[in-house]
Each structure stands twice: as structure tokens, then as C-alpha cells.
Design goal:
Blueprint (H helix, E strand, L loop, with lengths): L2 H10 L2 H6 L11 H6 L12 H28 L19 H14 L14 H14 L13 H4 L5 H11 L9 H24 L4 H16 L3 H16 L10 H18 L16 H4 L2 H15 L3 H6 L4 H22 L15 H15 L16 H6 L1 H21 L2 H7 L9 H28 L7 H16 L5 H21 L4 H15 L2 E3 L15 E3 L2 H7 L2 H4 L58 H4 L4 H20 L17 H10 L2
Antiparallel strand pairs: 1-2
Helix pairs in contact: 6-8, 8-9, 8-10, 9-10, 10-11, 10-12, 11-12, 12-14, 12-16, 14-16, 16-17, 16-19, 17-19, 19-21, 19-22, 21-23, 21-28, 22-23, 22-24, 23-24
């Protein structure tokens, strides 16, 4: 091709085609190539003379040569074609802000073609404001904070694409009742695109604060969708990246980095992998501060100290829930220990629960330590939850969300620790008589704290306030199993209250199940557990005439145990999640421990029916004045049961605010009067 022909073709091409080195059709005023791409088509003016044209053409040749060199440089620096890794980060010079910006731009240009989201994942300006408002309303501080609340809506548009996709996939499930199968499928596509982008960043060595924030969001999404292993993998990567930060450094915004660090620890406690599952139950469970690196612990401690120095009026005006989230995060440390307690296999030499070296004692100690640190202004007595209308509660969800989290999780931990099923596992090899005080204490713990949880559920239902934190669903499921056990006792008051409490729990789970699939499966597993209860006839017919004869019921013990384990409770059939593995799994012999509970669990009030519990346990001295209900019964066993039921009624009435004038002061013969006085002040 001669030089004149080349000049004519270059002269005929439009400016966009010349910049992209594309063959331009040359139509005017708009070429077909630009019209198809929807871009502006511009033709340069005619050249004044040939010398000016030759000068311009020379500049173009030089630019083309420079672009070719840059292309080869980018190709050589690409991780996919590099034959060796660069020197360690600690040994190379820290990049300047300008070089870091150029590097990030090159990475973004390289990765534009890696992920081609469909139109469903396209982020538009019209939906960003709605997405941000939904996130702040339903997800912020529930249970973790990742972003600055005051400028989140303004900064959302400028955040990395993987963060925006993860935020959309999480927040567009709300408001409750709007999640359809088609919408859920689109949200899963968004989450998948976000996961691919963040994994590309990690693989290419371009980790930002947005990478950690995205991993936290994806971990929440994966767990509630039943992908427990994937959720744990996301958290493990985020934890490793935070551990790898040099001392006294932060990624991006310092405040958001502190939020993210605290959020990673909180999620690890709530649903992260348990490293002590195979450890014997008699080994004391370490707390979070004992097992994390000093660097991460100092980061969280520094954030808590910073929050504690904020003026109250500033915190209430800008971020009313920023401080209470720090205390809720510390409570999750006791929750993680309780999770390990519920999932641990009990060895034959495990000490009884009242032993100071037992796992029961270590969890209870940590629970009380957290109780000592929570200020009075965040406790029940200082917050009139029942006195606020739904508009006030909904507009301040960033405070009332973590406040409810604090109350319900605080009450759920003693319910899990004193669950009759888990206690019976730890008493399987105990060959002595169970202490009378421990029997009374464990029953008082589960009835008292379960009463508080039912009270909060009734308030939520009465005010039509929808809780959005999925971990609260498992707290409710734990209480539901206790009520299911007590639904078959002979004592009418306890039985009727347990049946009503079980249905209250089921209604709460069904409402939350419209947002989180794992909660819906949790409710199905509880119904399956309820259907597994069958009456077992007595093997000796003549014993039916004996009034000491107790009705016997059987239950699917393995399913009950799985429901008490958070990682399994939200999976189909309460089975372990294996969705991440592609190859077929070779299953070994099934080992379902149907004899884990050595007493008739169903129909027993607490752990009174255990074989090591004494059959006659009088609560009061013979000459002490007791309640009319107790005086009408002469047998000590029935007296104990009805005494517990009577005191549960008294406590329940005080919880729901139905106490009359004569119930404002406890009588000297009321069981647990000292604990009641303490409970009014120290309940979280």
C-alpha cells in the first residue's frame, strides 16, 4: 500500500476509530461502528497543508510505538504470565501514592474483561440511594458495622464494585416479605460476581479495605444461604489479612478499618469455624482474647477505648449504636464459647458441670465477666423498649437492633449452657447424686432467661417490629427446644406456658424465614423435631397403677443436638454443610448416638428426671410457710415441680409488666428472691 493511500485512509477515519485502531467505515456524519457502540462520532477538520498533516502523522506513529511498549510492559508485569514473584513486601520500597494509583488503574483496566455481569448485576445510580438506605435501616449494626453511617450514602457510588454488589445482595432482601425466588436468584448472581472480583484482587495482590469489607458481607450472605464452609473460608481469609497488617497501620479510612476489624472478630464468634470441636469437653474453652493475636486484640481494644470517650450526645446524634455494638461484640466471645460447649463431644473423664475446671464453668465465668462490663444505660431498666412506638423503633434501628441483640443473646447463653440435653451428656458417666442446689439453679436459669426471651418476642410481635439479625433466630430456636421438652410435663401451668412459648418461637422464626433461607430451614427442623416425639408405653402394665409412674416419651436425640449447633441448625435436615465440595464424598458408617441422653428428656422439668437426681428434693423446710399450691400437695417431688412452676409464674408476670401491687415486693419464701433483686439491675 502506497503512502498516499495510507494517508487517505487515516484521514477518512473518525477520531474514536483512530484512537482504538479500528477499521472505520467512514460514513458521515456518524459511522456505523460508532452508532452501534452508542459513542460520539467526530471527524477532524481538513488539514491546512501537507506539512502539517505529515507532522500530525509523525506524532501518531510515535504514540502508537509508545502504546505498544506499554502493552508489552503490562503483559510482562501481569501475574498470569510472570515466571517469578517479586521480592517480599517487607523488603521492597513502599509505593508512592502516584505509583499506587497507576498500579490500581492498570489492575482495573486488566480486570474489566474478566467479569462481565449480566444486566441483573448492573449497578445504576438510580438504585444506589435505595440500596444504601435499605442497608442502613436493616443491616447496619445488625450485628456489625462496616461503614461510616454519616457519609455512607454519599460515598457508596465511589466505592469499589465488589462492595456495591455485596451490599446490594444483602440489603435488597429487605423489607421483609419482598424476597421472591426470582429476586433471590438475581441476588445470588450479584454475590457470585462480587466474590469473583474480590478473589481476583486477592490473587493479584491488590488488597484494599474494601476487600475485607466485601469478605465480611459475603460471609454473612453465604452463612444464611446454607453455605457454611464458604462463609468460614471468607472469614478465615479476612482474619489472615488483618493479622498480616504491620503494627500501627490501617487500610484506607482508619475508622472504617477499625469497624471492619471488630466486625471480623464478631463474625468469627457468631458463626466462624470452631477449632475446638474435637477437643475433649473437660478442656476449658479459651476466650477470644486468649486465642487471637495481640495485634488484632489491640486494634479492637483501641476502637472500644475510642468509642468509650465519645460524648453521649454526639453518639446519640450521629451514631447512637456505635458504642453499644462494641459491648455486643464482646458478648459474642461468650457466645462462641457456648457454641463450642454445645458442639463438643464429651469424654468419659469429663468433670461434672459444677466443677471449676469444666467447660460449663469456663463459659459461665466469661458470661458473668461480660455482664460486669456493660454500663447500666444499655440494660433493660434504662431502656423503655415497650414504651416506644414502631415509628421510633424503626427510625433508630441502628441502636435498637444491637440492643435487642445484647438482651436476647445474653439470655440465650445460660439457656444453652443449662439445656437438659447438654447437661445430661456431661453427666453420662457421673455415678454420684447430683447436687440439689445445681438442679434448682439450672432449672431457674432456663426458665428465667427463657421467660425474658419470650417477653421480647411478644413485644416484637405486638409492635410489628421485624428483627433482621439471623443469629437471633438460633437463640430463639434454643429456647424453642426447651419449651418443647416442657410441653409434655404433668404440671399444668408449666406445660401450658411451654406450649404457648413454643408457638411464639415458631412464629418469630417463620417471619424471619421470609428473609433468610437458613432461618426457614431452622423452623422446619424444629417442626420435624416436634413430630419425632412419640409416646413410649410402659413395659410393665402393673406399673400404670402406681402414681409414681411417669409417662415416657422418645425424641430424635441426634436432631435435637444438631439444632443446638448453629452451623447445622439452618441446614436442611440439620446436617453438616458439604456444598463446597465437588467430588463425591465417601461416607463412613453412620454413628447416630441415640443414647446421648440417659433419662426421659421430654416430659421432665429441667434436669429433674435425670437418673442421678434425687427423687425427693424438698425446697422448703417442713415448718416454713409455703404457697397454697404447695400446701395442697404432700409429695415432695410434686411440691418441687409446682414450686418451680409457681416461681416461674411470678417471674414471668414481672417480665411482661403484669405484676400487681402485691407482687412488687417478693415474700421471704419466694425461691430465688436475692437473684430477682440482682436481676433487675444487672440484666444486660
Amino acid at each position: 500500500m502506497d503512502d498516499s493511500r495510507a494517508m487517505r485512509r487515516a484521514h477518512q477515519a473518525c477520531e474514536p476509530c483512530r484512537r482504538k485502531k479500528s477499521k472505520c467505515p467512514g460514513e458521515r456524519p456518524i459511522c456505523s461502528y460508532c452508532q452501534r457502540l452508542g459513542q460520539q462520532c467526530i471527524y477532524s477538520a481538513a488539514e491546512a497543508d501537507s506539512s502539517q498533516f505529515r507532522h500530525n502523522r509523525k506524532i501518531e506513529y510515535r504514540m502508537e510505538a509508545l502504546e505498544g511498549k506499554l502493552d508489552r510492559l503490562i503483559e510482562n508485569l501481569s501475574p498470569s504470565t510472570a515466571t517469578s514473584r517479586p521480592i517480599a513486601p517487607s523488603c521492597r520500597q513502599a509505593p508512592t501514592p502516584q505509583s499506587q494509583t497507576i498500579s490500581d488503574e492498570l489492575w482495573n483496566n486488566q480486570n474489566q474483561g474478566r467479569v462481565q455481569p449480566s444486566t441483573d448485576t448492573a449497578v445504576t445510580d438510580q438504585t444506589l440511594v435505595e440500596t444504601g438506605q435499605l442497608y442502613l435501616t436493616w443491616c447496619h449494626n445488625q450485628p456489625i458495622a462496616l461503614f461510616r453511617e454519616e457519609n455512607f450514602l454519599d460515598s457508596l457510588k465511589s466505592r469499589d464494585r465488589e462492595v456495591i454488589l455485596a451490599v446490594k445482595s444483602l440489603s435488597l432482601r429487605f423489607p421483609p416479605g419482598t424476597l421472591t425466588p426470582q429476586k433471590r436468584e438475581r441476588l445470588q448472581v450479584m454475590a457470585k460476581a462480587s466474590r469473583r472480583l474480590v478473589m481476583d484482587r486477592i490473587a493479584d495482590g491488590h488488597v484494599r479495605l474494601s476487600t475485607l469489607q466485601t469478605l465480611c458481607l459475603l460471609s454473612q450472605l453465604d452463612f444464611v444461604d446454607g453455605n457454611v464452609v464458604q462463609a468460614g473460608l471468607n472469614l478465615s481469609m479476612a482474619s489472615h489479612l488483618v493479622y498480616s497488617l504491620p503494627p500501627r497501620t490501617s487500610l484506607g479510612d482508619v475508622t472504617e478499618c477499625n469497624y471492619c476489624t471488630q466486625g471480623i472478630m464478631t463474625l468469627q464468634n457468631i458463626h466462624g469455624p470452631l477449632t475446638s470441636l474435637s477437643a475433649p469437653a473437660h478442656v476449658a474453652i479459651p476466650s477470644q482474647s486468649e486465642r487471637t493475636s495481640p495485634m488484632l486484640a489491640s486494634r479492637v481494644a483501641g476502637q472500644q477505648a475510642q468509642d468509650s470517650t465519645l460524648p453521649n450526645e454526639l453518639a446519640q446524634k450521629n451514631q447512637p449504636g456505635s458504642i453499644i455494638v462494641a459491648y455486643a461484640a464482646e458478648l459474642t466471645d461468650a457466645w462462641r464459647m457456648a457454641r463450642a460447649y454445645a458442639a463438643s463431644y464429651v469424654s468419659s473423664d469429663a468433670p461434672p458441670p459444677w466443677n471449676p475446671d469444666s467447660d460449663y464453668s469456663s463459659v459461665m465465668l466469661r458470661h458473668l465477666e461480660v455482664d460486669c462490663k456493660v454500663p447500666l444505660k444499655y440494660r433493660f431498666a434504662a431502656n423503655d423498649f415497650a414504651g416506644h412506638d414502631i415509628e421510633t423503633l424503626q427510625s433508630q434501628r441502628s441502636y435498637w437492633g444491637p440492643w435487642l441483640f445484647l438482651q436476647i443473646m445474653y439470655a440465650a447463653i445460660p439457656c444453652l449452657l443449662n439445656h437438659p440435653f447438654l447437661l445430661s451428656m456431661r453427666l453420662r458417666n457421673f455415678r454420684y447424686t447430683m447436687p440439689q442446689s445445681f438442679i434448682q439453679q439450672s432449672f431457674d436459669q432456663i426458665t428465667r432467661h427463657a421467660g425474658w426471651i419470650i417477653y421480647f418476642l411478644d413485644q416484637l410481635e405486638k409492635k410489628d417490629f421485624q428483627a433482621s439479625d439471623p443469629v437471633l433466630a438460633h437463640c430463639v430456636a434454643i429456647v424453642a427446644t426447651i419449651h418443647l421438652q416442657h410441653s409434655f410435663v404433668k404440671e399444668y401451668t408449666l406445660r401450658d406456658k411451654a406450649q404457648a412459648g413454643f408457638e411464639t418461637c415458631m412464629r418469630f422464626l417463620q417471619r424471619m424465614g421470609s428473609v433468610w433461607p437458613s432461618v426457614s430451614l431452622m423452623a422446619q427442623n424444629l417442626r420435624k423435631l416436634q413430630e419425632s416425639i412419640v409416646f413410649v408405653p410402659s413395659p410393665r402394665p402393673e406399673s400404670a397403677e402406681n402414681e409414681d409412674n411417669q409417662e415416657s416419651w422418645s425424641i430424635d436425640a441426634q436432631l435435637l443436638w444438631d439444632i443446638l449447633i448453629y452451623e447445622k441448625a439452618g441446614c436442611e435436615g440439620a446436617a453438616r454443610d458439604c456444598s463446597i465440595f465437588e467430588d463425591a464424598l465417601t461416607a463412613g458408617p453412620e454413628n447416630r448416638r441415640q443414647d446421648v441422653a440417659e433419662f426421659d428428656l421430654v416430659g421432665s422439668a429441667g434436669i429433674f428426671g435425670h437418673k442421678t437426681a434425687p427423687k425427693e428434693v424438698p425446697v422448703y423446710a417442713p415448718d416454713e410457710d409455703t404457697s397454697p399450691t404447695q400446701r395442697s400437695n404432700t409429695r415432695a417431688t410434686r411440691a418441687l415441680t409446682e414450686t418451680a412452676g409457681f416461681n416461674e409464674d411470678r417471674a414471668y408476670e414481672r417480665f411482661v409488666g403484669l405484676n400487681e401491687q402485691d407482687a412488687l415486693f417478693l415474700q421471704p419464701n419466694d425461691f430465688g428472691r436475692a437473684i430477682d433483686n440482682w436481676f433487675n439491675f444487672d440484666l444486660v
